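User: Please work through this fold.
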Amino acid sequence: MKAQIRQSTIAICGLATLVLTGCVKPPKYQAPAPPAAPAWNISQEKLSSHMNAGAIDEQWWASFHDPVLTSLVERLAKQNIEIKVAAEHIAQARDARKITRSAGLPSMNAGVGYSHTRLSPNGFLSLVEPTPGSSTEYNLFSDNLSASWDLDLNGRIRHQVEAANASIQLSIDDIHALEVAEVSELAQDYVQLRGLQAAHALLLEEVDLLSQEESLILQQYQEGVANLSDTAGVKADREALQSTIPGIESAAHARIEAISYLLALSPGELDKELQSSAPQPPVPSIVSVGLPGDLVRRRPDVRGAENALELAVAQTGVAAAQFYPDVKLSGDFGFQGLHVLNLFSMASRAFDVGPVVSIPIFEGGRLTGELKLRESQQKEAALNFQKTVLAAWRDVDIDMDSYSKAQASNEHAIASASDRKQALDMSQQQFTEGATTKLSVLRANQSYLESKLAIAATASEQDQRLVLLYESLGGGWVAIDSSRH
């Protein structure tokens, strides 16, 4: 009778456990709806003349039509150390998921044991009467096979696997964000280098012109048709220009070394390739910027914020599952004997089979505190996603405006240079006809060189602003990711 009552009690407890476990309703992840995507905050005139809403070019660096830049980017995908480290993080996250997932699978272990034991007569043997002639020392041989399986009826392991999947996606988003940033940094270093080299060549030309002007004024002074102060002024201008050249050379060298570092090369390895001047990369006539809503799926930081929210939801599910019972099936089968010769006889067999139910009763507020913490972190992740989307639109808006203004500045510089070129041509024609002096021609040429310096500066700024625009658009990681593999 008592045995039947005991069995009934066990059955009722088991049924109650299954019912309670079946009532678990863990949180389910739902992709957040980003704020309504507005139109780009830029005039239609600028959008149609410099940019359009076409699909962004994933290999945007190719739009500069510079084979050296393209080659550097291709090498970056394979050689950059930061990208390699981020790739290892992905591998680590996948291994961590494998470990987490294994907790929901059956496990099995085998063991063989031997022990030599001596029991004290003054211990528990003093409470019993040993068989006459029996020894207090004995050998114990054992051979057993054990297995266990956590049924995960409360969903704890399942949510842990979901969290591990989200962690993998976060690692992937991290490497994509790094790829965008590293390509942008390389491209900015490169266009700055070409701008500095162009400025360096023009400054050398202007210094040479000032030297010619200085010699001409000195000759006129000796002939009594010029003042010595004019010579001093030109000399001061020449020396002032010459003083800027070392700084430009140092800045150009720093850009080459910055590119070398990104490519994991030793200092000086790129000198032969990059020290020779080359034309500044021209910007494309039209830049495709896509639509505002595209940012949500293209920018790695936005995708990362969404996956961080999915991770927070999964961690909340893990915390909620800990309030419910956990059921684990376990079994142990083997042989035990005092002599190795009869170890594997049927009489030596031993086994232990049955479920283990773990029910949380009192945890001192730990479970409640952890659940509230995870819920708060989930709300924070949702707010962070919204903030990241807004920041992405803000970045693109600022960079579109900056690029448009840099392009306008470059156009003004080109127009000014065209006017000064006409003035130089006119001055040279007048000198040929004897209507003006050689000094006037030199000064007109100097004015033209200064306008070309302005073009070099605005062109470099325009290139850099376009690179920053592509970075804020989140472009490039698809091509870099495929090149890396």
About this structure: The CA atoms of residues 312 and 376 lie 9 Å apart.
